[in-house]
Amino acid sequence: MHPQGQLALADAGRGTGPRERAASARLPGPGTPLDEVFTACEALGHARPGAAWSDFVSGCHWAAPLPEAEPADDDPRTVPWARPADGGHVLSGEWRLAPAARGARWVALPALVEGGRPVFVVRRTQGAEGVDGYRLRELFVPDGLTSSAGGTPLRSADAPYAWAAATGTAFGSARRLLAEGTTTHLAALLERERDAVHGRLRNAPEGGDERLAERVDRAAHVVREVYSACCEEGPDGLPLRPASLVTAGAPLLQFLRFATELLPFPRAGAR
Predict the structure, then answer these.
(1) What per-residue confidence (pLDDT) applies to 132?
(2) Res 271: pLDDT
(3) CA-wise closest residue to 190 among 172, 202, 204
(4) Are residues 222 and 171 in the same domain?
(5) Contact, 254 vs 145, CB < 8 A?
(6) Is 18 within the bounds of a domain?
(7) Which range marks the domain in which residue 82 is found?
(8) Residue 143 in contact with residue 88, Cβ under 8 Å?
(9) Integer Cα distance of 163 and 38 in angstroms
(10) Structural contact between residues 3 and 29, judged by C-beta atoms closer than 8 angstroms
(11) 160 burial via Cβ count (<10 Å: 0-12, 13-18, 19+)
(12) Pairing mode, if any, of strands 60-61 and 152-153?
């Protein structure tokens, strides 16, 4: 049985202001009604847009349902490794794919980085697969396709939970982005879509359904549209919004772009 309740954030309890108090709240865990997950994560994304993705990843290991590979051997000279790059990591190494990876679109690849061992998610076709293993050389993996084995591992049946958490966080971050200016039409578009996805989450059957997946895909498109518009230059030639806020939202947008493909609606009996 999946642990229910709440997931602790990495920096819970720091600070005393209203934004810090919002950020220190515990993230609702799998088993919480999806509309409540969305609302809590929306507040988090609005309070801490710069840390929204790290908070999401520290709370849950979203890639746990994917087929995970193992390093091909224990030789420190050939252990998979990743070096930081702007917006992600460059990944190289050799792995042994699990039998479950046969025919899978995506695979989860653990690798060493300075200070930890995150899990990188790539399309299986991006590597060279042979009888002796699976190889990658210098593949860039964006931050939004990186998970953390230190978070609570999700199950296949938790896919709608991950959709709700990421979508809520993205909407909160986008609302914060718009609060930095006066783009009325974008705010109205975002509010309409926010109400639509929240309503669908509230009325969806327990555990979600395929119509919810369609709604999440639509919501992701709207949030990307908002971010894209905010990257445009104003009359003075400067970006319409602080570049730091736009950049901070990139991992969430990357994840949401593929969320329902990475974590599809669970089949009957999925655990």
Answers:
(1) 67
(2) 54
(3) 172
(4) yes
(5) yes
(6) yes
(7) 70-147
(8) yes
(9) 9
(10) yes
(11) buried
(12) parallel
Is residue 168 located within the same domain as residue 256? yes
Give me the residues of the chain with pLDDT under 70, please: 1-26, 132, 180-183, 232-244, 267-271
Let me know the angle formed at the C-alpha of 124 by 166 and 109, rounded to the nearest 5 degrees.
65
Q: What is the 3-state secondary structure (H, E, C) of 99-124?
A: HHHCCCCEEEEECEECCECCEEEEEH
Tell me whether residue 271 is in a domain: no
Q: How far is CA 43 from CA 26, 31, 107, 166, in A?
A: 11, 19, 31, 12
Predicted local distance difference test score (pLDDT) of residue 120: 96
Q: Angle between the 210-230 and 184-203 helix axes, to the nearest 10 degrees?
A: 160
The answer on 33 and 17 residing in a single domain is yes
* pTM score, whole prediction: 0.83
Neighbour-count burial of 86, counting CB atoms closer than 10 A to its CB (0-12 exposed, 13-18 middle, 19+ buried)? exposed
Residue 104 corresponds to which amino acid?
Answer: A
Kindly report, residue by residue over 62-82, the tens digit of the pLDDT.
999 999 898 888 777 778 999
Sequence-distant (6+) residues with CB within 8 A of 15 are: 21, 23, 24
- The beta-strand segments (E) located in the chain are 6-7, 27-28, 60-61, 70-71, 81-85, 88-96, 106-110, 119-123, 128-130, 133-142, 146-147, 152-153
- pLDDT confidence of residue 179: 75
Give the tokens for residue 17. 């202001």
